[in-house]
Specification:
CATH architecture of the largest domain: 3-Layer(aba) Sandwich
Radius of gyration: 24 Å
Number of domains: 2
CATH topology of the largest domain: Aspartate Aminotransferase, domain 2
CATH superfamily of the largest domain: Type I PLP-dependent aspartate aminotransferase-like (Major domain)
CATH class of the largest domain: Alpha Beta
Helix content: 40-55%
Strand content: 15-25%
Distance between the termini: 38 Å
Number of strands: 15
Largest sheet: 7 strands, mixed
Amino acid sequence: MPAASKRKEAAKPHQSETKVAYSRGKINEDYHEPVIPLLTAIQVYFGWGLLLLMGRIRDFFSHLCVKRAKPPAGYAPIVNDFEDFYTRRAYGRIHDCWNRPICSAPSAYIDIIERERVNGPFNSYTSKLRETGRVVRALNLGSYNYLGFGDADSPTRDAVLESLEQYSVSTCSARPELGTTRLHEELEELVARYVGKEASMIFGMGFGTNATGLPALVGPGSLIISDANNHASIVTGARNSGAKIAVFKHNDMKDLERLIRKSIIEGQPRTRRPWKKILIVVEGIYSMEGEFCPLPEIVALKKKYKCYLYVDEAHSIGAVGPRGRGVCDHFGVDPADVDILMGTFTKSFGAVGGYICASKQVIDHLKRACAGSLYSASISPPACRQIIEAFKIILGEDGTDLGQKKLKAIYDNANFFREQLKERGFHVLGHQGSPIVPLMLYVPSRIKAFSLEALAHGIAVVVVGFPATPLLLSRARFCISAAHTREDLEKALEQIDRIGDVLGLKYGN
C-alpha cells in the first residue's frame, strides 16, 4: 500500500474522535514562497549599504573627536568589532521596537508601557528609552499563547493557586537532588502518554532542552544533519555535542538525501570510518517561516538509510493536529517512527520548560547524563500544575469540550488571518494550519515603521530583521491564538490593511 494511503487509513479513527474540521495528512500543495520584486530587492541592498556606509563615516569622525577607552596592553577587545558596530549604528536606531515592557498577562489584549527616546533618533549610540507613564492597550499578535492558557482567567488558574499553597514557588533544587515532586513525575507520565512515547524527561528551560539534550545524545564520531533554518537552541546543542554537523537546505528533501548518501559513503573525516550514528534534526513548525517540515518524507529517508530522527515541536505541540498532538498528529505519522520528540511548555501550555520523549532506555540515559537534568533547577511546582491541567483540558479529561473548542479556534483563526492577508495583497509565508503567520516587509526602514504604526493603531506585533533573518527577508511575525475572536482579527486586518497602503507593503500575490 502506498505511504499516502497508509496515512489516510491511519487518520480515519482519529478524525472520528474530534470535531475539528482539520485538513490533515499533507502540506498544502499550492503553497509557494513569494518572490521579492526586483526593485524592492535593489531598495533593500541600497538601504543596507547606505546605513553601513553612513555608520562607518560617523565612526570615523567619532574616533577623531572622541577619545575612546582601549583594552589594556596585551588584551583583546572584549566585544566583536562588527557586532559592536552593528549594535550602535543599525540596531540602536530601531531598538525601541523590542524589549517593550508589559504590565498584564499575555492574553488576547495586553497592556504595554509606553516609552520614548531621550536623545532623539539620530544619536543611536547613546540614545536611551524612558517610560512615559502611559499604558497602551493593544491586541496581542506577538505572544506564543496559542491556546489561551496564559490568560489571566485561564481555566487552569484555581489548580495552579492550590499547588502554590502546597508546594510554594520553587523547589530550589535540581531534579536529582530535592527538585522532584509528585507533580514532576505525573507530568512526565502525562507527556509521554500524550505524544505516544514510552517515557519522557522534563526540563526547566525550553532553550536548554535542545542546548543540553543534544550533547547527551550524540558526541564525537557522530553526525548531526540539521535543517538550515533550525532554531538557535538546536545550533547551540549541536555545537556543544562535539559531533560533526552537516546542514541541508531548508525543507529540501533532495538535498537531505544527497547529504545522507554522501555522509554514509565518505564516512568520518580523515579516517573514513563509519559514523557511530547519524541524527537528522528538524523542527515541526519553523518559527520564522510558519512552515511545517515534510515529516512523512523525512521519516521515509530516515528508514531508508537507517538514521535517527529528532523533531523539535516547540511551536507545533498542542497547536496543530486534530487532537493537538503536533506534527505526527497533523500528518498521521506514527510517533514510533520518530526516535526523539522534543517540545516546550512555553507556547501552547502557558508555562515554562521543555521535554524530550523517547524510549525508556534513551530517557534513562538522559536522566543520568544530561546537564539540563543534573545541574539546572527543576520546573516550579505551580508551573507543573499549569501544564498538567492544560494537558487534561486538551485531552478532555476535565469533563468538558473546552480543549476541542480551543483546537478548532486556533486552526480556524490562523487560516482565516493568513488568507485575508494574502487577499489584501501582502506577501505571507507559512502553511495552512500553522499559527505563525509571517508578513514580509523586506525594506529595513519599514521594520521600525511597521512596528510603531501597528502599536499606534493598537496592535502589538513582533518584527524581525537581519541577522535573525536573511538580509532581504525582513518580516513581521504574527502569532495567532485561540483566545482571539473573529472580531479581533477582522479589526486587526483593517488596521494592517491601512498600514500596508501607507508603507507600500502590498507587493501582490
